[in-house]
Amino acid sequence: MVKSIVISCIFCLIFLGGIILFFGQTNYVRHDRKLSVVCTTGIVADAVKNVGGDLVDVYALMGPGVDPHVYHARESDVQRLVSADIIFYNGLHLEGKMGQLFDRMSQQVPVCAVTDGIDRSLLRQSQFAGAYDPHVWFDVTLWMDCVKKIRDCLIHRDPVHTKEYSKNTELFLKKLQELDASIREKVALLPKNHRVLITAHDAFSYFGRAYGFDIISLQGISTDSEVGVGDIMRVVDYIVAHGVPAIFVEASIPQRNVEAVQNAVRAQGKKVILGPTLYADALGEVGTIQETYLGMVRSVVESIVATLQGKDGV
Ligand code: ZN
To answer: In the chain, what are the helix, strand and coil shares in percent, each to the nearest 5?
Structure first.
């Protein structure tokens, strides 16, 4: 009798231990609830929503119009990150102030830098030694590589749903391919000598390389520096010398520097208009066409092409 009780207890302990081990491990994902995903930018969150579909609950730390280069994590952000099943961020120092936080987080929560999906030989150097330009999403083909990376990270975290993540990815990649083709069609409407894009900061260098634009910007890759008089005069001289008709304001950056260029051009007896606001590093408000990546890129391209078509008339 005593012997059988002891044996039963041993079995009970083994069973309980197994349960604790199974449910206690950090990698376990329950299949009856959505995967809780925290992303930094809205652009990354948009891609994760497309790949994850109904299987994920996605939260973006940075809302519409928020500049990722200078964003500091709040206490509430840290809480969200710690309790996530997986974290996605852009990487390549886009989230300049959060890099160390992700290093720390990676010991507790799986962390995925979406730009790790891009072959390093396809990246552009930034003005900082040894660093790359993080604005890869403006070359749609590079963004497709990031989407594949998101798929791989989700599958690694939640392998039970491999089939669903793969299927969602295929559908989204098809839409991205169509977007890339439509950009090329629209840009082809613009004479080659009209393809000069002047913006507040250097977010469009991949766009320029992919779709054949010269890119001039007031600020470098990051917005985390002051624009000097020299920067403004360099751009003013270019506009006056080449008769560029428009400069573009960006949604997440104050207008004052672009307006200073406009005033200086005017002081030289020339005219340059402010083009429509471009969404460069953030998506638009909910309910606008720019609330998704597809809509945001389409609207940027339409704004650029429509504005620069007026070159001869200015
Ligand atoms: Zn930027």
So the answer is: 55, 10, 35
